[in-house]
Write a structure and sequence with these properties.
Layout: E1 14-18, E2 22-25, H1 30-43, E3 46-49, H2 60-74, E4 81-87, H3 94-103, E5 106-111, H4 131-140, E6 144-146, H5 160-175, E7 181-183, H6 189-197, E8 202-206, H7 208-212, H8 216-219, H9 236-246, E9 253-255, H10 264-267, H11 282-292, H12 299-311, E10 319-328, E11 333-335, E12 338-340, E13 348-353
Parallel strand pairs: 2-3, 3-4, 4-5, 5-6, 6-7, 7-8, 8-9
Antiparallel strand pairs: 1-10, 10-13, 11-12
Helix pairs in contact: 1-2, 3-4
This protein binds N-carbamoyl-L-aspartate and zinc ion (2 copies).
One zinc ion (ZN) binds near residues 24, 26 and 50.
């Protein structure tokens, strides 16, 4: 892995930061949800909950039911806030946006190009079909979250993010200049440049795994199914561009783990699912990435300040403390009736939350 090796002689041995938020999280449903939600609730004040369930969370009503399931799983004593999202389809009515705003529980709408990723079959086939709905979102200030990859067979998987910028995102941003857009889990220098050059309405989330790994970590020495996610890991130059943006202090970039648990048998199979499970050590993995880049002093801004600023919310009121302490990640975690293999299973992480 492209982490670890560096000397830590002049870095601090502990760091206190305002409690982070996860602006991109998958927790699934049912028994799996109960297994994974405590990890995020322990670290984060809030999380944007992705709507790609089967069936997807396409209406405010469904989001209300889903949120109640999350509250039930958390129990009465939890302060954790699940921020709900709607799954955009070709036929999401503009009226649904009004309903969403009036409910007070919907924080954003998620665009999955149909076929781009896990449970995206009901996603958008042609963004023009959604223009009235986007118009309403722009008017009412509801952000659009974007899985930014094209799906055409003739576009190389490593180029799908860049193609999405050129063929789709530039048009959306041009046609809706005051629509808040979060380019989710960006993986390329092209995406970094696009976000930096766009207006203040455009921001991006960056995962820990895209800061810590490149495509060699998935392909060299044998295929690693647990390092397969979408957008797929890219070459080192892109990882470096992401790290530079993340550590730059630019407030357009913020934490979104894209922790996406799948059961072991759904990953270790002939056609494995995309997604990495990182929520169990989200902030610790980011701390390691920032530490590797000698930028621990910028972690809090990325993990705890920039997200609320973009979403127009207050920052969390308490702090967490991380200590430089190596610990070994379990080989697996319980995931409903099954298990999920965490990132770094059986290996070490250099940072640990102590309070
Ligand atoms: C996510 C999932 O499993 O839901 N998978 C992934 O590889 N990131 C979907 C997504 O965020 O694209
Ligand atoms: Zn995605
Ligand atoms: Zn995701």
């Amino acid at each position: 892995m492209s982490n670890s090796q560096k000397s830590s002689s002049h870095s601090p041995s502990s760091i206190s930061i305002i409690r982070p938020d996860d602006w991109h999280l998958h927790i699934r449903d049912g028994a799996g949800l109960k297994s994974v939600i405590p990890f995020t609730a322990r670290q984060c004040g809030r999380a944007i909950i992705m709507p790609n369930l089967t069936p997807p969370v396409t209406t405010t009503r469904r989001a209300q039911t889903y949120q109640q399931t999350i509250f039930d799983a958390l129990g009465k004593n939890s302060d954790f806030q699940p921020l709900m999202t709607l799954y955009l389809t070709d036929s999401t009515p503009a009226e649904e946006i009004k309903t969403a705003i009036n409910s007070g529980i919907i924080s954003a709408v998620k665009l999955y190009p149909a076929g781009a990723t896990t449970n995206s079959d009901a996603g958008v086939t042609d963004i023009k079909k959604c223009y009235q709905t986007l118009e309403m979102m722009q008017k009412l200030g509801l952000p659009l979250l974007v899985h930014g990859e094209v799906t055409h067979q003739d576009i190389d998987i490593f180029d799908r993010e860049k193609s999405f910028i050129d063929q789709r995102l530039e048009l959306i941003v041009r046609d809706f200049p005051e629509l808040k857009v979060v380019f989710e889990h960006i993986t390329t220098s092209d995406a970094v440049d696009f976000v930096i050059e766009s207006s203040s309405y455009v921001a991006a989330t960056i995962t820990a795994h895209h800061l810590l790994m490149n495509r060699n970590d998935m392909l060299v020495g044998g295929i690693k199914p647990h390092h397969y996610c979408l957008p797929v890991l890219k070459r080192e130059t892109h990882r470096e561009a992401l790290m530079k943006a993340t550590a730059s202090g630019n407030n357009k970039f913020f934490m979104g783990t894209d922790s996406a648990p799948h059961s072991k048998h759904n990953k270790e199979t002939a056609c494995g699912c995309a997604g990495m499970f990182t929520a169990f050590a989200a902030i610790e993995l980011y701390a390691e990435a920032f530490d590797n880049a000698d930028a621990l002093d910028k972690l809090e801004q990325f993990s705890s300040l920039n997200g609320p600023l973009f979403y127009g919310l207050a920052v969390n009121s308490d702090k967490i403390t991380l200590q430089r302490e190596k610990w070994t990640v379990p080989e697996s975690y319980k995931f409903g009736d099954d298990v999920v293999i965490p990132l770094r299973a059986g290996q070490t992480i250099n940072w640990k939350i102590v309070s």
